[in-house]
Amino acid sequence: MSSIPRSLSQSGVGLRLPHIEEAVAARPNAGWFEVHPENFLANPHATELLQELARSYPIAIHTVGLSVGSASGLDRRHLARVRSLVDRIDPVLVSGHLAWSTHQGEYLNDLLPLPYTAETLAVVTRHLQEVQDGLGRPFLLENPSCYLGFTGSTMTEVQFLSELVDRSGCQLLCDVSNVCLSAHNMGYDAVAYLEGLPAHAVRELHLGGFTAEEDDSRPGHAVLIDTHSTRVAETAWDLYTHAVARFGATPTLIEWDNEIPSLGTLLEEAARADQIAQRTLSRESAHALTR
Amino acid sequence: MPSLAEVQQQMRNAVVTGDANGIGALVTGGGDALRRLAIHQRHYRASLMAALMGRFKATAWLVGSEAVESAAATFVREQPPVVLCLAEYGEAFPQHLSRHVATNRVPYLAAFATLDWHLGRLAVAVDRPAVARAVWAALPPAGLVDLTVTCQPGLYYFTADRPIDELMRLYLTDAAPDRLALPETRAWVEVRGNRGRLTFARLAAGEFAFRKAAHTSAPLGGAVEQAFAADDAFDPSAALANLIDANLVTDLEIAPGARHS
């Protein structure tokens, strides 16, 4: 068994079920792993393997079902199940999405968009406080990938996230690929978005692949779809450089959820993130010395 | 702007049923926001159908992927998940499928699909430590009738009028013959799963009734009564010894309201 020390300073990869037995057996050179609890809560065998892996690697938990934006309230049974996994794994980070996915007891298996209004702000703030109380630790909120906005929104996404940080004490997970995708789809400046986020609250970065397809709403144009089924796009790597310069050394994760490749491919992407981060941070340090 | 609850109800209707009435005026994005909304509609449908197709692979092998896909398309519209772990979605699909597919050629379709669903659950189960023989040996014989047991989590008991367990074994071993006769014959089957390993066992009617009742937390005395009702020749001592030998029991409890001696 490998005794290589693992840490969040090296990029991690999203660990999906097809790779878990290999990860336990081979102990790959990843800094850390992140898992979706929804893949484990109904899978005792995978949970057993995850607990074994947690003895050697930092593990982060990234929920896709907590639905902090649901007007009909949090699913407290699910929150309790996530808490039970948190207690067993003792993750280094716990995160979820600025979105809604449950409605009146139904689970829509998608991260659906929210109008950025005072009412939504109150709902999400209340739920974030409940989640953080329920889990007994800070919760990182991820910026969404957007195809839609709302005519009734009264604030920008960056303003909305900043308010949530102030009101709930939550922290932020900046999905750099989501910024790239949403900026393209919704027509705003990705770098300005990063500049607007409260840097002190950003505790994790995500990078995942997206796919361009014909935008039915604008013939002749492309819409970017958050497929997590391909390598990180060059535009997202470019934006990642800005993100590292803006937020400093921050735990970074490679996500790949569909058409999942070999673990080796994920580790290649993670190594590229490490190279960019090291290069950017060295350059920032050099600039600081010469200022 | 309607309330958040109203917006989400309208968006839920658009995503699940395709009814986008009312939501169009509320959303922006691209040249036609409703076409952007279709991205979410498509994801909902495709991801849940993929989950069902992944969960009912043996069923698709039996009746063909097209039939299962077609039933899955209506199922996800009519019965959205009420669980947040997709591995738990689809328990009601076998009944939906059997209404959707002409079952005169496959009268055992619902039973086979139900077995398929349970195999997914059993395949990821993990055995717990069994109650030690010494604990059983220390129990006063008179107290056994009031004892309830907790069984291993990876168990499924079913009866069938056709040998669907044999059919499933053929699928699992990739050994399907060109033709297979499935005569009408009663089978009482226990399936056990542990860390990815599945085992099938045919039981006598009495032992099946005993184990199934014990598995559903009936007191052992009641389980024995059910076993005798199913099989006059049932041997309770042998059945209990088999239960212990198979390491099926993980916990013991004296039933509430039990007689104390």
Main interface by residue count:
A-B, 49 and 49 residues
Average pLDDT metric of chain B: 94
Sheet of most strands of chain B: 3 strands, antiparallel
Low-confidence stretches of chain A: none
Q: Give the termini distance of chain A in whole angstroms.
A: 47 Å
The number of distinct structural domains of chain B comes to 2
Helix and strand run of chain A: EHEHEHEEEHEEHEHHEEEHEH
> How many strands in all of chain A?
13
* CATH superfamily (homologous) name of chain A: Divalent-metal-dependent TIM barrel enzymes
Number of domains of chain A: 1
Q: If you consult CATH, what is the topology of chain A?
A: TIM Barrel
Q: What is the string of SSEs of chain B from the N terminus onward?
A: HEHHHHHHEEHEEHHHE
Total strands of chain B: 6
Which percent band covers the strand fraction of chain A?
15-25%
Walk across the major sheet of chain A and give the strand order: 1-2-3-4-7-9-10-13
The low-confidence runs of chain B, each spanning 5 or more residues with pLDDT under 50, are: none
Q: Give the count of helical stretches of chain B.
A: 11
Task: Tell me the β content of chain B.
Answer: 5-15%
Provide the gyration radius of chain A in Å: 19 Å
Q: How many alpha or pi helices of chain A?
A: 9
Q: How are the SSEs ordered, and which strands pair?
A:
The complex is a heterodimer of chains A (291) and B (261).
Chain A: E1 12-14, H1 17-26, E2 33-35, H2 44-53, E3 59-62, H3 76-89, E4 93-97, E5 100-103, E6 106-112, H4 118-135, E7 140-142, E8 149-150, H5 157-168, E9 171-175, H6 176-186, H7 190-196, E10 202-208, E11 211-214, E12 222-225, H8 234-247, E13 252-255, H9 263-290
Chain B: H1 4-17, E1 27-28, H2 33-55, H3 57-63, H4 65-78, H5 93-100, H6 109-123, H7 133-137, E2 147-151, E3 155-160, H8 164-172, E4 187-194, E5 197-202, H9 205-215, H10 220-230, H11 236-245, E6 249-254
Antiparallel strand pairs in B: 2-6, 3-4, 4-5
Helix pairs in contact in B: 2-4, 3-4, 3-6, 4-5, 5-6, 9-10
